[in-house]
């Protein structure tokens, strides 16, 4: 029986369409960014976030009212939402960014998510936001923390374990830290960001992929949310790192010391 103090939980899972992790990244000829005319898929850390939301529902059963996925991106980003829906999300929101527009920065994404959460207050107030700790394209790792700051909600980053205590409306979390784990208790509503060891995402079955096509996807724009997604930073130039030069072998210590001297490297006492 559900504790009277608790209510049904609503979970929001932001996901991002990113260049597939298996693709070799190349700089475009204009040197304005990377070549994006390649295979894209859901950011791997966001897959973990969707999986964790679905696992929470499997553990808590009827205590989870809804799992809603959201993405901010171009028209093709709806494919990423369909993947989340096939994995088990109930519905989705697509904040569409015009084709060819610069990718929004973490602060812009956080503001968009805050606007969505505030918009959902009346019909389905969000209790828990689960998102990847970083995206593999920009590697910024900032959105979750910025969102928590904007909402003034508690946050737990880089989590490897998550349990919900419905009676107390709090989460028991284990975070990845150097040399071990840190255990936290956080009151809901809460922002968490996922680490690799939290779970292993499932593959969406064919029946679920077909069902996902019928699940609702709401389309919005930045104007609908009253926000500006224009980047605050300007990228001047993108170049590939210099190619690594192979090392050499030395026969003994004396030869190594001589080579270091020839290279202008001297010992420091």
Automatic annotation (TrEMBL):
GO terms for biological process: amino acid catabolic process; fatty acid beta-oxidation using acyl-CoA dehydrogenase. One of its GO terms (cellular component) is mitochondrial matrix. Binds 1 FAD per dimer. Binds 1 AMP per subunit. Its cofactor is FAD; AMP. Keywords: Electron transport, Mitochondrion, Transport. Residues 32-229 form the Electron transfer flavoprotein alpha/beta-subunit N-terminal domain. CDD domains: ETF_beta. GO terms for molecular function: electron transfer activity. It is found in: Mitochondrion matrix. Heterodimer of an alpha and a beta subunit. Belongs to the ETF beta-subunit/FixA family. This is Probable electron transfer flavoprotein subunit beta.
């Amino acid at each position: 029986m559900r504790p009277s103090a608790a209510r049904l939980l609503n979970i929001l899972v932001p996901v991002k369409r990113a260049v597939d992790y298996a693709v070799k990244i190349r700089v475009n000829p204009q040197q304005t960014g990377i070549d994006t005319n390649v295979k894209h898929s859901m950011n791997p850390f966001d897959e973990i976030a969707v999986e964790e939301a679905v696992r929470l529902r499997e553990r808590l059963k009827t205590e989870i009212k809804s799992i809603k996925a959201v993405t901010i991106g171009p028209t093709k980003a709806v494919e990423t939402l369909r993947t989340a829906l096939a994995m088990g999300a109930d519905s989705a929101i697509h904040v569409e960014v015009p084709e060819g527009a610069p990718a929004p920065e973490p602060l812009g994404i956080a503001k968009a998510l805050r606007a969505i959460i505030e918009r959902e207050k009346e019909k389905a107030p969000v209790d828990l936001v689960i998102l990847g700790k970083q995206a593999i394209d920009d590697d910024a790792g900032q959105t979750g923390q910025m969102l928590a700051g904007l909402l003034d909600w508690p946050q737990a980053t880089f989590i490897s374990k998550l349990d919900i205590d419905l009676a107390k409306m709090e989460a028991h979390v284990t975070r990845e830290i150097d040399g071990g784990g840190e255990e936290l208790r956080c009151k809901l509503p809460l922002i968490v960001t996922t680490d690799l060891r939290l779970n292993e995402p499932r593959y969406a079955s064919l029946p679920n992929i077909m069902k996902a096509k019928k699940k609702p996807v709401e389309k919005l724009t930045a104007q609908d949310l009253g926000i500006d997604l224009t980047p605050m930073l300007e990228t001047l130039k993108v170049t590939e790192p210099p190619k690594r030069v192979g090392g050499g072998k030395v026969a003994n210590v004396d030869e190594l010391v001589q080579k270091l001297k020839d290279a202008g490297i001297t010992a420091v006492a």
